[in-house]
UniProtKB/TrEMBL annotation:
Gene3D superfamilies: Aspartate Aminotransferase, domain 1 (3.90.1150.10), Type I PLP-dependent aspartate aminotransferase-like (Major domain) (3.40.640.10)
GO terms of molecular function: pyridoxal phosphate binding; transaminase activity
Enzyme class: transferase
InterPro entries with a match to the protein in the record: Aminotrans_3, Aminotrans_3_PPA_site, PyrdxlP-dep_Trfase, PyrdxlP-dep_Trfase_major, PyrdxlP-dep_Trfase_small
EC number per UniProt: 2.6.1.-
Start and end residues of each stretch annotated as Disordered: 1-22
Keywords tagged on the record: Aminotransferase, Pyridoxal phosphate, Transferase
Highest taxon above the source species: Bacteria
Protein name per UniProt: Alanine--glyoxylate aminotransferase 2-like 1
Protein family per UniProt: Belongs to the class-III pyridoxal-phosphate-dependent aminotransferase family.
Amino acid sequence: MAPLQTDLPRGRMNNAFDPSAAASLDPGTRRLVERRTRLLGPSYRLFYGTPVELVRARGVQAWDAAGNEYLDAYNNVVSVGHGHPRVVEAIHRQLETLCTHTRYLHEGILDYAERLLPTFGGRLAEEGHLMLTCTGSEANELALRIAKHRTGRSGVIVTSEAYHGNTELTAGISPSMGEFSPLGVWTRRVPTPDSYRLPPEGLGAWLAEHTARQIEDLERRGEGLAAFVVDSLFSSDGVYAEPRTLLGPVADVVRRAGGLFVADEVQCGFGRSGERLWGFQRHGLDPDIVTMGKPMGNGYPVAGIAVVDEVVQRFGQDMRYFNTFGGNTVAVAAARATFDVIEDEGLVANSERVGRYLRERLGTLAARDERLGDVRGAGLYVGVEIVRTRDGKEPDKETASAIVNGLRDRRVLISATGLHGNVLKIRPPLVFREEHAERLVEELDAVLQAV
């Protein structure tokens, strides 16, 4: 049997299992880790100091192999909850009827496009097209291909700690993959809009100025600007939801330079941010391309882009797009059912209401524990900045890690994010309720007293 890797994998990942601690695991867990290492190789990562073996789940709850129940406050892939019966039934019904690709006529994908495109507003509602893929990485890859073809340029600007995918092209614009994951020579970064440490007034102009500098550098080096790609909740940068005036000035600078504005909604879309269905709408934007992924099919692999007609016209004339599994009939059934549930169960409003309640309760906790330096977010996407002292605002990764693992031991699942790995990342399914938020806060309170 291959020996366990005993050093931490190179490259940054917050809240990763440390293989050197494997000897402390119970025998059953250790055997699973050993098999995983031998069979899957060194690139896969595990969460938590003590990995969790989940065997079933429903709604916002999951159970491990020993029958212990966990509160899932992290998983946005199953956006409408684990095992939602309407999504399960839609997948089952379509799979036993027909599973085929988009080179045959099928009304399902057309019905879905007719319902989805109007939700974006602006030009996408009036003249947009839907193109389906399997993953968010593929969606962002397709968006970059279209942007480069449309503009005839290659430069892409992202935020300092962005994550946009794991294909070669998208990993090349994903600084959060770590220092050993090379960025494209045509990639430029702008700083994280850290509203906790920088005054929110004028932050949009500040970010636009940094963007203009990077555009100038791209043009000087003969690359030019193809696209600015951004997750409007800055998920991997540390979860920054305010100010809402942040991205408008950036979009203006990008378009003056002839680039496209790409809104990456893989994490912040489909009601995640509350109030509106899409995160970019909080900023009053009209993107050229919107990319979608994780929550689109509630765990079934379906993703895609919405793109303005004039942006994709020449790309469509010069080359065909086909994806064997992207937009297959079962994937579309999963996406349609998930969208139905979001609408019928009022999950955008639920995200707003429960998210506000959760932030208020966390704020009460922060008022008496200065290690919780900032509570921020929108809807059911919440970031809690862990610092050494409130006055100094110095990031405290060690305490954040201890909190994440302490909550895991109390069977509440969250993670951490940001450059320093010191921001608690709370991103539960959209069916999260006030009683679930209350349980999370109570367990966090207990962990803080023990850390």
